[in-house]
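Field log, afternoon session.

UNIT: design team B
ACTIVITY: writing a sequence onto a fixed backbone
BACKBONE:
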C-alpha cells in the first residue's frame, strides 16, 4: 500500500533571500506570495486529497488556507513539519550570518553542525519523517498535502531518496513549489521535484 505526499513549500514573503526568518513570528506572505498561494489552490483543485497538514508559522498557514478552502478540507497544524529551529540565528540577515564561522560550518556539514541554541538537520529529518510515517499508516492508498519549509522538505526527500543529509544543496525547493513523493512498504520514489505553478 502506498501514500502520495505533496510536499509544498510556503509561498514567498518579502524577506526571502535576505533574512533567515526561522521561527520568527510575524513573517507573512506579500502580494506575490498570496498570488502564488491562490495558484497552488487552483493546482490542487482536481486532486483527491485526504488530509492537509501545515507548519504553524504564518507564512505556511497563509499558503495552506487557500488550498484547504478550495478543497473544502479541514486544515490541521502539525508542529513536526515546522521550520528548523535556528536558535539565536533566527531573524538575522544573511549578510550578518556570513561573518559567523559557525554559519560556514552549518552550510558545509549539516550532518555535524548545530545552530547556536537550535536543532540539527538530522533532528529535523527525524521529526518530519516520523510525521510522514504516521500519516502513511492513517492514509494508506490516499494523498496528503504537507505545507512546510525548504530545508525541512529537503530533509524528507533526502531520507526517502536514501541520500545523505549533506546532499541538501543538490535539491532545489523554491517558494510555492510542490515535490511529489510516493511512499510504500516497498520503498519510495519521487515523481516530481520543485514543480512551480505558472502564473
Amino acid at each position: 500500500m502506498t501514500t502520495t505526499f505533496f510536499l509544498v513549500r510556503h509561498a514567498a514573503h518579502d524577506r526571502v533571500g535576505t533574512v533567515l526568518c526561522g521561527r520568527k513570528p510575524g513573517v507573512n506572505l506579500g502580494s506575490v506570495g498570496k498570488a502564488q498561494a491562490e495558484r497552488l489552490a487552483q493546482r490542487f483543485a482536481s486532486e483527491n486529497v485526504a488530509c492537509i497538514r501545515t507548519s504553524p508559522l504564518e507564512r505556511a498557514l497563509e499558503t495552506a488556507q487557500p488550498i484547504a478552502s478550495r478543497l473544502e478540507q479541514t486544515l490541521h497544524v502539525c508542529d513536526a513539519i515546522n521550520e528548523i529551529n535556528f536558535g539565536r540565528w533566527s531573524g538575522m540577515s544573511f549578510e550578518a550570518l556570513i561573518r559567523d564561522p559557525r554559519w560556514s560550518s552549518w552550510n558545509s556539514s549539516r550532518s555535524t553542525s548545530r545552530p547556536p541554541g537550535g536543532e540539527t538537520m538530522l533532528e529535523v529529518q527525524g521529526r518530519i519523517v516520523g510525521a510522514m510515517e504516521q500519516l502513511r499508516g492513517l492514509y494508506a492508498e490516499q494523498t496528503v498535502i504537507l505545507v512546510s519549509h525548504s530545508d525541512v522538505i529537503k530533509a524528507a526527500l533526502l531520507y526517502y531518496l536514501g541520500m545523505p543529509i549533506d546532499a541538501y544543496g543538490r535539491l532545489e525547493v523554491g517558494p510555492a513549489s510542490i515535490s511529489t513523493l510516493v511512499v510504500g512498504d516497498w520503498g519510495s520514489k519521487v515523481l516530481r521535484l520543485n514543480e512551480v505553478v505558472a502564473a
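LOG NOTE: The longest strand covers residues 187-196.
NEXT ACTIVITY: expression trials, pending approval
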